[in-house]
Predict the 3D structure of the following.
Amino acid sequence: MGRRLDVGLLARVPLFAEIDLGDLGAVAARNAVVSLEAGEILFRQGDPCAGFFHVATGRMRLSVGNPEGSVTTVEIIGRGETFGEAVVFLAQPYPVTATALAASTLYFVASAFVDALLDTSTSVARRLLANLASRNHRLVADRAALTLDSARQRVCSYLVEHGRALTATGGLAEATLVDAKKEVAARLGLTPESLSRVLRQLADEGLIVMSGSVIRFAPRRLVDQRLR
């Protein structure tokens, strides 16, 4: 799958921080570092699950498709996040297709390694459960937003969630559309045209300032839009 993942490198992942990995050399040999180019598929929906992945660099899209060829983005996973843990516990095939949105480096953690580690560390079990609970909460919130919020509210929520404060600009924040517009639109349950239309409306109303893929805004004003 890739070159071997050194245990010392794995120990830098927050999930495994301060956990004794020294006695797991045999099963640790199944872990690997995986490098992907943009657009490359890591695994497809229905492929057998052999472990989960940590995104060291890059971004991954998780999507589902149907026999008619329709594809829906379920989640976009960024640097420092993991995916596939739940499937490890269920011992079922991957329910999604994972595609690199940019050149990405992933740490593959084999199911056998997880099983051996859980036998020796309750800390890892608690962290995995917390991670899964957090993701489930986020997915439920995202699903509610797609069902109940207008396109305008979804876009405002996305910008506020992905914005970072600019301390020298009087309370403004900045968000960068690091993914292609069609990927952001799919994430929000919109067409690219609908996303562009909402962004233009927000810009025309003075709520955002766009410069290429960089968008500046006052978070409080966009939060007010979300509540309407």
